[in-house]
Amino acid sequence: MANNPQDIQVAIKGQFDAVLDTIGVPETERVGINLLKKGGHYMTLQGESAAFADRYGLAIGLPAATAILLKKKLQYQYTHGIEYEWVYMRADCEGLDEARRLLEAGKMKIPVEKTFSIAEVRQAHEAKEKRLIPGKVVLELD
Description:
The chain has 142 residues and is of the alpha/beta class. The protein is globular and about 45 Å long. It has 2 domains: 5-109, Rossmann fold (3-Layer(aba) Sandwich); 111-142, no CATH class. Strand 4 (112-117), helix 6 and strand 5 form a beta-alpha-beta unit. The mean pLDDT is 83. The protein has 6 helices and 5 strands. Helix content is 49%, strand content 21%. InterPro entries: Lipid_raft_assoc_Zn_ADH (IPR052585).
């Protein structure tokens, strides 16, 4: 049985059809890409676009980020046989409501490793920082 995050990653490598990376940093991209089967789909909601737009402004940053993302799309199609997609987005109530409907209908699943009460927020952060819990953590409001 897998005891640490690296063992878990090895055990489930290549087992998924799709990964939705809501964090979009190099580490989560690397892990997400490696979880996919050939023909799988990787989508990021973050990534370079926000950082480039913040750093260089929309006129320069957005095209630069798009060029990098297009390069990754081609690279991952060639090296891993997967589709690499990205979304420029903004949070809104309608989108969150649609996500809720998909979850309730069982069409979308979010794997939750552990649930903490809001009073246990410190323990939840410590567990994630120490990588004791590899999956998602949920804080429940009382």
